[in-house]
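Folds abound. A case:
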Amino acid sequence: SHKPNTAVAQAYYNRAAGIRKLTTETGAGQWGTSLSFAGSLFGIDVEVFQVRISYDQKPYRRAVMQTYGASCVASPSSLTESGRAILAQDPNHPGSLGIAISEAVELAAQRDDTKYALGSVLNHVLLHQTVIGLEAIKQMELAGDDPDIIIGCAGGGSNFAGIAFPFLGQQLR
């Protein structure tokens, strides 16, 4: 997964700023696992809110997060006001990424030593992911070739930006 490219950078810079804890959400678990790994490198506590359906279906991803020292909670949970409100309406709610984000942000907003970390979409994440494209450019140079087309997944944007932005910059220059 490309997620450690930004997870390690975010954990490093948060630790340098004196942050002691990061909260986040995860769907299938790749981002939660990556941030858990990064937190373990820099001594930062990590609390992951994993979408309940995925939490139940993917116990090994949860186990990896916990192995790195993170707390992994099924979302919606009883730990937050937003989670409790949803559980009051439907105690068997399967969860969603939006609910998990709400819970992670709610906890981060309550403490000065805690920040919310996101694994896609944001500008700094796209920047961290450009290592993918920079490496691809070097590999193409070693092969003595240039691609005609660059293709990447475009879910949250970080994977696509990571491969495409360096090539785009090369074209613009």
Q: What stands out?
A: Helices lie at 4-16, 30-42, 52-57, 59-67, 81-89, 97-109, 123-143, 158-172.
